């Protein structure tokens, strides 16, 4: 705060603090509080809202835990989101390292610019493109001369989510690796360390904040995605956000939908805590 005051003065500092407080309190905290309040209230006719029957209850959460189908969809969403996160990390780490340490700065800027090109197209169009490619009568089967159902089970969702969110893994990892002094890598190599050992003992420990930030963002975006699962689903694949959407718009039960959404929020919060503990970094470290 002192540095902010010295650099921008009291007027701009007050404005920055006010804008940050507005963002956190009005756009993040307040909607979540309202959602939690809704989740503990029963669905009642409009005439009975606020009456003696409008009391706090855990019935909406009990609806989730007694429904094996919803619990299964929840667990599958967690599992598939973890798979998407692992795939994005496995694909993004080599690219991030190559871009940060193996090419010149101008070439790195060009590569990053090319990687960002797909982000100029809306997520909806990119998901439609993958549906056209992976459909039974789609481009891939036409090119290969095969009749494979690429969108069976969760295959289409995994491909679509990994493609859509891989840059959210790549950029934090690239930023973390780029800040590593190259002389440390050269020193490890000069001392006889293999490439694998150099990465494991030098590069990965330094890149842990970026890896943790990427894992958190990809998992949360994947678990909370609704567009990609809607477009690339198969008859036997269901996503937890689709269940929430059904509660809100099909059943018109905002209270049960809020309870399910709060469970998803708790899941994401636990995943953030798990990643921070696993990589032994602080939350502020992931924002560097």
Based on the model shown, name its key terms:
288 residues; mainly alpha; 0% strand; cell membrane; Spermidine/putrescine transport system permease protein; transmembrane helix; membrane; transport
Description:
It holds the Pfam family BPD_transp_1. It is found in: Cell membrane. Residues 74-275 form the ABC transmembrane type-1 domain. It is a multi-pass membrane protein. This is Spermidine/putrescine transport system permease protein. This protein has 13 helices and no strands. It is globular. The relative contact order is 0.12. The longest helix has 38 residues, at 2-39. The two termini are 17 Å apart. 74% of the residues lie in helices and 0% in strands. With 288 residues, it is mostly helical.
What is the compact description of this entry?
By secondary structure, the chain is an all-alpha fold. The protein has 13 helices and no strands.
What is the mean predicted local confidence, pLDDT? 88
The SSE string, one letter per element, is HHHHHHHHHHHHH
Please count the beta strands (DSSP E, at least 2 residues each).
Answer: 0
Helix fraction?
A: over 70%
Which SSEs are present, and which pair or pack?
Blueprint: H1 2-39, H2 59-65, H3 68-101, H4 105-116, H5 123-134, H6 139-144, H7 155-165, H8 167-178, H9 182-190, H10 195-223, H11 227-232, H12 240-250, H13 254-279
Helix pairs in contact: 1-13, 2-13, 3-7, 3-8, 3-10, 5-7, 8-10, 9-10, 10-13, 12-13
């Amino acid at each position: 705060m002192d540095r902010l005051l010295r650099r921008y003065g009291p007027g701009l500092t007050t404005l920055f603090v006010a804008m940050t407080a507005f963002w956190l309190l009005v756009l993040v905290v307040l909607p979540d509080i309202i959602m939690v309040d809704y989740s503990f209230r029963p669905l009642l006719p409009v005439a009975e809202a606020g009456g003696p029957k409008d009391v706090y209850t855990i019935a909406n959460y009990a609806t989730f835990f007694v429904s094996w189908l919803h619990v299964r969809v929840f667990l599958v969403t967690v599992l598939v989101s973890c798979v998407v996160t692992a795939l994005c990390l496995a694909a993004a780490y080599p690219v991030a390292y190559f871009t940060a340490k193996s090419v010149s700065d101008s070439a790195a800027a060009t590569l990053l610019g090319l990687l960002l090109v797909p982000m100029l197209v809306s997520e909806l169009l990119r998901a439609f493109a993958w549906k056209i490619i992976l459909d039974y009568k789609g481009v891939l089967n036409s090119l290969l001369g095969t009749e494979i159902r690429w969108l069976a089970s969760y295959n289409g969702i995994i491909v679509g989510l990994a493609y859509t969110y891989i840059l959210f893994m790549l950029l934090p990892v690239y930023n973390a690796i780029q800040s590593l002094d190259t002389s440390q890598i050269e020193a490890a190599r000069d001392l006889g360390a293999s490439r694998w050992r150099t990465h494991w003992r030098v590069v990965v420990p330094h890149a842990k904040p970026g890896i943790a930030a990427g894992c958190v963002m990809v998992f949360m975006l994947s678990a909370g995605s609704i567009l990609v699962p809607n477009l690339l689903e198969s008859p036997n694949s269901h996503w937890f956000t689709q269940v929430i959407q059904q509660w809100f718009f099909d059943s018109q039960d905002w209270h049960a939908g809020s309870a399910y959404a709060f469970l998803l929020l708790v899941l994401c919060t636990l995943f953030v805590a798990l990643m921070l503990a696993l990589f032994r970094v602080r939350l502020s470290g992931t924002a560097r």
